[in-house]
Specification:
Layout (H helix, E strand, L loop, with lengths): L2 E5 L4 E7 L4 E8 L6 H23 L13 H10 L4 H6 L16 H16 L2 H22 L20 H13 L7 H4 L2 H23 L6 H5 L8 H11 L4 H16 L6 H18 L3 H8 L11 H23 L11 H26 L44 H12 L4 H10 L6 H21 L4 H15 L1 H10 L6 H11 L6 H8 L3 H15 L18
Antiparallel strand pairs: 1-2, 2-3
Helix pairs in contact: 1-4, 1-5, 6-8, 6-21, 8-10, 8-11, 8-14, 8-15, 12-13, 16-23, 17-23, 18-23, 19-20, 19-23, 20-23
């Protein structure tokens, strides 16, 4: 968050925010000479409170809540976020006390903080100061909005010091690229990126490093960091917990967000899971009874940590531990790697330095290859192999039954509204795998014409998104749709949909793809190569999310974007 202070010597209102390395300060406005010290400090304090409330919308997004149903925490977060557009208006025209002293106070934290800033400005009664503060508030709101889109440049860079309950696919992809450049030297992760998203990428690379070290050492991948602790003292709890969770098929995103949300809840004085706490207390009691004979030792063993992370900075603390875990994998790899071909008779120190560098290069290359082979873990692209689900019955194929099976749904692949039919099927069934099953079913049809039908289906889907790019749809609509998709179905579906959003003019996804591919402008062919068989499903997922959010669940909303034959 941005902190506001008064420079008494210069008579200025100053804004200060942290970056990944040091802090930045700017002058917001010259304060009126006749404005008292208490009034000056009140304005600075209220601006700091507004910034805190604004950035809490970033760190606690609605998408990270358990539910968006009315009167739930997620519902309240969403309402607060939707009020960003009116924040500056509340500063300009705040609620003021009536003649009898009554004051209307908002339940919305951002709105009420904006009114407080406005009341402080009203007391100052200076038009120049009001204009400067309104401009400052608008800049702070814009910084939060940019950070939500994964753009942490400029003023939004303060987000690198914050812990967010959710991960940004754009930031995860950027962190993945940094680790790919140097798995053992990724300090830039702390300077330029959202630490929660960086943790997701670091979990993926920790798993790759652990698998490489496991093959060389013969130790289980989940135990390599514990083994490395015998070589060099390193933190083991968080990396080991993460590796064990990966072994039971939790995704990096699920692991990171769950651990971070628990730590944030503990920092807020809450117990995230009472049953887990009871189990850990019982384990500590059993450990004390089994291994101690005096009360002092028993009390020490009964002490437990509520979370392996630092509750005051959980994301950055987790990132530090994960990167140290990768270093631990290197230590174990170096310990067990074959050095028998090295002659150390002469110039021992020089040869040892060369050997160390050579082994680090070999380890880094092996980890890169392992991470590349399993990049789907990040949820940014589809997994290479999925079990085939029962195929949908297609109108374009021969009739294969009496049509009485209610679990099957006819999709008329030649109809102009074929994409709308698939989107409707996804929303009605609550099953995002329907478009994947559809493509798999079509590929199994023994028909020379099926390639043309698939191409036409994809072309129609692309037509919707291109029409959205030229229509009234805005970036915030696409962001809301992807948040909805990620919340309900996870990164496996939201990641490809984010890439598909580039067709609808989503700047952040266009930039992410361009940086990943090393090009200035991404062609449709390159996008198709990135998504592979998930190209059409990703379009459907994005359209389904837009129908549910912007279209308020009305499939007819898509009709306005349906491409015509002339298109």
């Amino acid at each position: 968050m941005t902190r506001y202070a008064v420079d008494e010597t210069r008579g200025e209102l100053v804004a200060i925010w942290d970056t990944g390395y040091g802090a930045v300060a700017i002058t917001v406005a010259n304060l009126p000479v006749d404005l008292g010290s208490r009034e000056r400090l009140a304005l600075a304090a209220n601006l700091s409170g507004l910034s805190d409330a604004l950035w809490r919308c970033y760190t606690h997004p609605a998408s990270a809540a358990d539910s968006l149903d009315e009167n739930t925490e997620g519902w309240r977060r969403q309402l607060t976020r939707e009020g960003f557009a009116t924040v500056a208006d509340h500063v300009r025209e705040p609620n003021l006390p009536s003649d009898n002293g009554a004051l209307l106070v908002s339940y919305d934290p951002v709105e009420e903080c904006a009114h407080r800033v406005g009341r402080a400005l009203h007391a100052a009664s200076d038009a120049g100061l009001r204009a400067a503060v309104v401009a400052e508030v608008e800049a702070e709101v814009e910084a939060v909005e940019k950070a939500e889109l994964g753009d942490l440049s400029g003023r939004s860079t303060q987000a690198v010091q914050l812990t967010r309950q959710d991960a940004s696919p754009v930031q995860v992809a950027a962190a993945d690229e940094i680790l790919a450049r140097d798995p053992l030297g990724a300090d830039d992760l702390f300077l330029d990126l959202d630490p929660t998203s960086a943790c997701v990428a670091a979990v993926h690379w920790l798993k790759a490093a652990a698998d490489v070290a496991s093959r060389v050492s013969g130790r289980a991948a989940s135990q390599v960091v514990l083994e490395a602790d015998n070589i060099e003292a390193i933190p083991v709890r968080t990396p080991t917990d993460v590796l064990e969770l990966l072994d039971v098929d939790y995704s990096p995103t699920d692991i990171v967000t769950a651990m971070i949300r628990d730590a944030m809840a503990i920092a807020a004085g809450q117990v995230p899971d009472v049953d887990v706490l009871r189990d850990r207390l019982d384990e500590a009691e059993e450990l004390a009874d089994e291994h101690t004979t005096d009360e002092f030792s028993a009390q020490e063993l009964r002490k437990i940590r509520l979370t392996p992370l630092d509750p005051q900075r959980p994301a950055r603390d987790m990132l530090e531990d994960l990167l140290t875990g990768i270093h631990g994998c290197w230590l174990l790899y170096n310990e067990y790697a074959d050095h028998s071909d090295v002659d150390l008779d002469d110039e021992v120190d020089e040869k040892l330095d060369d050997l160390h560098e050579q082994m680090q290069t070999e380890f880094s290359n092996a980890v890169r290859e392992e991470a590349r082979a399993h990049r789907y873990r990040l949820g940014l692209e589809p997994a290479p192999h999925r079990p085939t689900r029962p195929a949908l019955r297609l109108v374009a194929s021969d009739d294969d039954g009496d049509g009485e099976d209610e679990e099957r749904r006819d999709i008329d692949l030649e109809a102009e509204d074929s994409c709308e039919q698939v989107v409707s099927a996804v929303l009605d069934a609550g099953d995002p795998d329907i478009p994947r099953d559809l493509i798999e079913s079509m590929l199994q049809v023994a028909d020379d014409d099926i390639g043309r039908v698939i191409a036409a289906l994809i072309a129609r889907g692309v037509g919707y998104l291109v029409a959205m790019k030229d229509g009234p749809l805005v970036t915030a609509d696409l962001d809301a749709a992807m948040e909805w998709l990620g919340e309900r179905y996870g990164a496996e579906y939201a990641g490809p949909a984010l890439a598909a959003a580039s067709l609808a003019g989503h700047y952040a996804s266009q930039r992410m793809l361009a940086e990943r591919l090393g090009v200035d402008d991404v062609t449709f062919g390159q996008l198709s190569d990135v998504l592979g068989p998930d190209l059409f499903p990703a379009i459907v997922w994005l359209c389904a999310a837009l129908v549910s959010t912007v279209g308020e669940g009305d499939i007819g909303w898509l009709l306005r974007y349906r491409p015509t034959r002339e298109d």
